[in-house]
């Protein structure tokens, strides 16, 4: 028995539903249109992943038989062709959200950018065109992807561009010895991550305030917020004697994200502020507490934390509605 029939039976037994109403509900359920948007979009993304993975497997298995030059030429043709298709099917630039009738254009742009990365990596591996200038190898895709993201209004490519830009910043600031040894506790990387997160957050807030690609602000705030909080927490754990130098920025970031979450009615940003703020608060609390009290106080703190989690998930909608009600009163 399907869930709908079970519910209808229950309602009829309680005399909440007549036979005519039941027939109407069952007819509506059978005839109502079903959206295939998410399914088709997921299939297209899966197709992009399978296609680019297949290109990589093709290169790996046929390097000796096809030859490097032929494979590079094939990749170049596919990359240029994809970019050309995106350009031909694009609409004029706009400061706001662009609605393109050519729905496959978005996926073609993802394919083009992914193929560009494969082509760049292959050329670097085979001919070492960039040498040891790894910063140049990362800044080129960053500039290209950010340009394409704004020109063709694509949030996925914007994420790729911001990730490539972060890679370029990390390589530029930290010496290769730090990266090759996986020494991510290096304070230069930590401070750079915090500043980069602030830059992304500022770009997201500015895009909303200036009404310039306002819908990009979510991507900026999501990536920038995570980079900022993770970098600040790493600095908090790494610092000795001046932990509050990172605690204050974390508190300010939590305040900013809570306010933004209430303004935009976003559960995700509220959750980010609560989780990262809780981690920082817990660390500082046990850092200043006498170790002899850890075992005794820890049990109560875990119980209180469990209760706090339950309370948060039961009341987060009320937390978001407070700002919404204030805005309605101001209007």
From TrEMBL:
InterPro entries, per database record: DUF2157
Entry keywords, A to Z: Membrane, Transmembrane, Transmembrane helix
Residues in DUF2157 domain copies: 9-156
Keyword Transmembrane listed: yes
Keyword Membrane: yes
Signal peptide range in chain numbering: none
Membrane spanning residue stretches: 38-60, 66-87, 107-125, 131-150, 157-175, 187-206, 218-236, 242-258, 267-286, 292-314
A matching Pfam family: DUF2157
Protein name: DUF2157 domain-containing protein
Record organism: Runella aurantiaca
């Amino acid at each position: 028995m399907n869930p709908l029939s079970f519910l209808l039976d229950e309602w009829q037994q309680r005399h909440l539903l007549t036979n005519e109403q039941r027939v109407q509900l069952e007819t509506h359920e059978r005839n109502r249109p079903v959206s295939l948007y998410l399914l088709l979009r997921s299939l297209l993304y899966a197709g992009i992943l399978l296609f680019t993975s297949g290109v990589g497997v093709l290169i790996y298995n046929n390097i000796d038989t096809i030859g490097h030059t032929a494979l590079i030429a094939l990749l170049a043709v596919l990359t240029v062709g994809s970019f050309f298709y995106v350009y031909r099917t694009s609409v004029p630039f706009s400061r706001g959200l662009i609605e393109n009738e050519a729905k496959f254009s978005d996926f073609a742009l993802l394919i083009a950018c992914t193929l560009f990365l494969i082509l760049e990596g292959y050329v670097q591996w085979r001919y070492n065109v960039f040498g040891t200038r790894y910063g140049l190898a990362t800044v080129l895709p960053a500039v290209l992807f950010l340009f394409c993201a704004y020109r063709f209004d694509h949030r996925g490519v914007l994420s790729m561009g911001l990730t490539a830009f972060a890679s370029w910043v990390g390589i530029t600031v930290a010496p290769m010895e730090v990266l090759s040894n996986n020494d991510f506790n290096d304070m230069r990387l930590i401070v750079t991550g915090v500043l980069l997160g602030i830059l992304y957050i500022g770009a997201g807030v500015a895009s909303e305030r200036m009404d310039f690609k306002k819908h990009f602000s979510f991507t900026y705030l999501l990536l920038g917020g995570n980079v900022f909080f993770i970098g600040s927490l790493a600095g908090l754990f790494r610092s000795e004697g001046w932990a509050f130098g990172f605690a204050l920025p974390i508190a300010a970031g939590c305040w900013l994200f809570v306010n933004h979450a209430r303004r935009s009615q976003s559960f995700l940003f509220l959750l980010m502020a609560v989780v990262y703020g809780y981690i920082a608060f817990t660390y500082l609390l046990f850092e200043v507490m006498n170790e002899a009290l850890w075992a005794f106080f820890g049990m109560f703190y875990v119980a209180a934390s469990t209760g706090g989690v339950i309370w948060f998930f039961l009341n987060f909608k009320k937390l978001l509605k407070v700002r919404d009600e204030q805005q309605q009163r101001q209007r």
